[in-house]
Amino acid sequence: MEDDVVVRTRRGIDVRIVFALCVITAVVAMGVVRMWPAGATGAPTRPVDRTINSYVLFALDNISLKGGNAQVAEIDNGDVGVQSDQPSDSLNLCQGGSSHQTKLGDGTQANSANFNTSSACSFWDVYSNHLVGTPTIRNSGPTPFTTPLIPPASLPPFPSFSCNPASPVTVPNNASQSLAPGTYGNVQIKDGAKLTLTGGTYTFCNISMGQNTSLIDVDATIVQVAGTVNTDGGTVGPSANAQFFVRGDGAGGGVAVGFGREGTVAGTWWVPNNQMNLGHGTDLTGHFWALRLQSDFNIQVHGVKAPCVDP
């Protein structure tokens, strides 16, 4: 009888010990999981992209996008990346709370040595050496990479040019005008007006657009701006291959380009010395590269798909 009691007591102790060990193991495991960074276990679709044409949004120093406001800000057919690995420079996405969502399309990369994000973001592949936040990573990452992101010698060159202040261009309210290639001064497109660039190289001092305006271009258009560009929510395009080089002379607050609210902008833009503000509710197609990129809410960004070629 006493032996039976001893056996049952030992069995009870054994069960309690096993239970306690299970609880401890579970708690430790939960702690380990909580310490793991957000990530995905798949293999990257390809190595980190080292050519600037892969990037729909690219900054030398810093990108800060607010994301959607009660909707999803979509970025597709191109990568997002920051060149610098300095502690003060980073890629900052979805920092405004859980409702400010941003999603990068399948097959794209979000790349920055320093990356600040949140659960409101969704990425495909992520390359980062220091990821802060818990985004959804649908395929792989964060995967470390060597910096800089793009070899400096592979960054696009910036042309040397001068504008002609004595030759301004003004398009009156609700008027339409075509302009031949050449060197001009300030361009002012007043409310409701349209200026058409027929192709070739245009050099301007500054471009200022009023409300409900259009700057029309074609693939062979090259626009060189010594100062600043303000589209005020107008339309620039439709060519995603038209090239815009904006130097930013005299840029107030270091902002050389501002797209305003609810505009539509296409082209390949290169602003290496200053900031580009992508606007609020803007629809963007092409490539947008600058020293710094910022946006308000609800921008949509579309890269340019490579043309299909029959084998």
The backbone outline, from C-alpha atoms, is globular
**pLDDT < 50 runs, ≥5 residues:** 1-37
**Estimated share of beta-strand residues:** 35-45%
Give the N-to-C terminal Cα separation. 88 Å
Helix content: 10-25%
Q: How does the helix and strand content classify structurally?
A: mainly beta
What letter string, H or E per element, gives the SSE order? HEEEEEEEEEEEEEEEEEEEEEEEEEEE
Give the mean pLDDT. 87
The strand count comes to 27
Helices, by number, come to: 1
Descriptive notes:
Helix content is 11%, strand content 41%. The protein is mostly beta strands. It has 3 domains: 1-36; 40-143, no CATH class; 158-302. An 8-stranded parallel barrel has the order 2-4-7-9-6-3-27-26. The longest helix is centred in the first third of the chain and has 34 residues, at 2-35. The radius of gyration is 26 Å and the shape is globular. Residues 1-37 have low confidence and may be disordered.
Give a quick precis of the structure.
This protein is mainly beta. Helix content is 11%, strand content 41%. It folds into 3 domains: 1-36; 40-143, no CATH class; 158-302.
SSE layout and pairing:
Layout: H1 2-35, E1 40-41, E2 55-65, E3 72-76, E4 79-82, E5 91-93, E6 101-104, E7 109-111, E8 114-116, E9 121-127, E10 130-132, E11 136-143, E12 169-171, E13 176-179, E14 182-183, E15 187-189, E16 194-197, E17 200-204, E18 207-209, E19 214-216, E20 221-225, E21 229-230, E22 235-237, E23 243-246, E24 255-258, E25 264-277, E26 283-295, E27 300-302
